[in-house]
Amino acid sequence: MTDLPFGFNPSPNPDDRGEGSSGGGNTPPGGMPPGGVPFDMGQLGQMLSQLGQMLSQAQTSGGGPVNYELAKQIALQQLAQSGGTAGADQTSAVTDAVHLAEMWLDPATTLPAGARVAKAWSATDWVNETLSTWQRLFDPVAQRVSGAWVDALPAEAKAAAGPMLAMVGQMGGMAFGSQLGNALAQLAAEVVTSTDVGLPLGPEGTAALLPANIEKFTGGLERPASEVIVFLAAREAAHQRLFTHVPWLRQRLLATVEEFARGIKVDTAALEQLATQIDPSNPASIEDAMRSGLLEPQTTPEQKAALTRLETLLALVEGWVDVVVGDAVGERLPGAEALRETLRRRRASGGPAEQTFATLVGLELRPRRLRAAAALWRLVGDQHGIETRDGLWAHPDLIPTTEDLDDPMEFAERLGGSQLGDDPIAELERTEREEKERGENGPDQS
What we know:
Zinicin_2; metalloprotease; metallopeptidase activity; protease; two-stranded parallel ribbon; hydrolase; 446 residues; mainly alpha
């Protein structure tokens, strides 16, 4: 293996030593071994220090399935090397852009402003501010995967392994942390807002833009930087309106990811093969095993259902934001339509978020029905007004379903016939009462 983690170098092969190497007698004074390469005691000390730090992290990481301290450390180190600390000095420009965007959004939606503060984040800020949400998302996944093979072991095997199981668990947490750290570093270098991946990752009520990443994003667009930052600020502010004033939405999105994770099942037949490939004293062997696909989760019917719900909900969020932002900035920014299309393609084709989730947990965050959702929201707004359109977010049972995305015209007609826009909650309660009464009276009375 050539890509050893944590900065270690390959150990010398004992079979390559000279015939007189036993006892170290062939090493001349001054530390020059056979072959003329000096022995670097400083490098040995650094290696031992790293090893001690790794083991200390494994013991103090709380015993969870992922070593998040290691993940954070790896992500921040990679970002520091690539200049990921830039951008925090542009708070004034971000604040002005968000303020302007909020004024433009006011007549385009009935949902009031949701962002209480606007911030300019660097890539490292993004890691620090979103890590707690990533922990919520990845803990169930890592717990299922890392614990599956231990649970599958016979009782006598567990007893024989003894303390070794705890050591392997710590190493597994470090391996997950290493993978997550690398993924977060890549993601932090590309996202342009706190809601760029479609999930509410940052603190509630905080509209955050990443100016350094926006500058890179603007490079190939041939649009003024001021126009791009206002457009992205409008998207961020629109997301914050949804996540702040639709109380169930944030929880439903994150809970659906957790539901997907709880359904993970690992092929126990592959565990026997995995056991032959893992060296508990070598973290790299565990990470290699995870990358090999042997622990790749099997998709269950429950997971497919959760994934469908997640894709639909992400599409509805992105479609609503697309329509509202289009109405808000369409006549004010000359390049708005081109920017809308660029971002629609970026989200629909699967950006960095999709690779992050697909690599680590087999879960894609691609809103496959984004255009269909935008068309549905546009149709509802045109036929019934923005009050009815935005009123559908009042309760999760009111929002369009996957089937509604297939036939938005039928949904709009049904919406008009039920007069849902007058009082959506009252209509929902009436429907629930009717269903309850039918259940109590029996099928013959329905």
